[in-house]
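Hi P.,

Sorry for the delay on this. The queue was packed all week, but I finally got your sequence through. Input first:
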Amino acid sequence: MVFYYINIRTFVVVAVSLVSCYLSLKYDLRFHFSIVLLGLAIAFPLGQSIQMAFKRRERALEYLSLFNAGLLAIHYSFQSSEDLVAEKKVEAVKIVNDTCENLLEQLRVADGSVSKFRREIDKITQFVEQNKDAISKRVQIRIVRYIKDVLDGSLYLLSLTTHRTMLGLRLLAIIFINLFAAFHPPMLAYQLRDQMPLWVIYMASALGPILLITLYNFQAHIEYPFDQKGADDIKLNEFKLKL
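Then the structure:
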């Protein structure tokens, strides 16, 4: 599971920290300053980005449930129409299933096309229009209300494909993580040079940057929880209707 959060950024940060440690030991470079300010510069944007990503994930689950509930209500409305013949009810099931499959696939491939999904919704309204004699006015009004729930959920979910967490915060976080990787090893070398073996100093130099970049990668994964690549992604297959 941890390997989901290791990528090229991890290797770059580790390389920066190890090179910095090597140069510090070789040329006796010594930095001795408070790390608190640099820590705050990392903690604030990284913490805010992770918090926003978690909120997006929770809201995505909420709107996926709203979307599914709306489609199920439409399905039951069609099936409860006594004047609708069996063949038409089977056709209605296919339309509802296809609508669900279409949105889940768009989320999986990060296709935020609203017009593409709207064509699926149009199939529901066209079906109602074509069979209005077999569907009572009361049921038609109910279906329109349920379509609103489907649209509320789907439009929010599709917006997540193009609107991510604040780029400025993420940019600040990655910049200061790299600065930490560059300037922290000389401080460790200054403190541990005569007290610890060299391999311990190298390991300690890489450990902090690895932890920070792993948190950054974790945030990058959960801010778009639909691509099915991370361990914490929303399991889209569980939201299939399978009517």
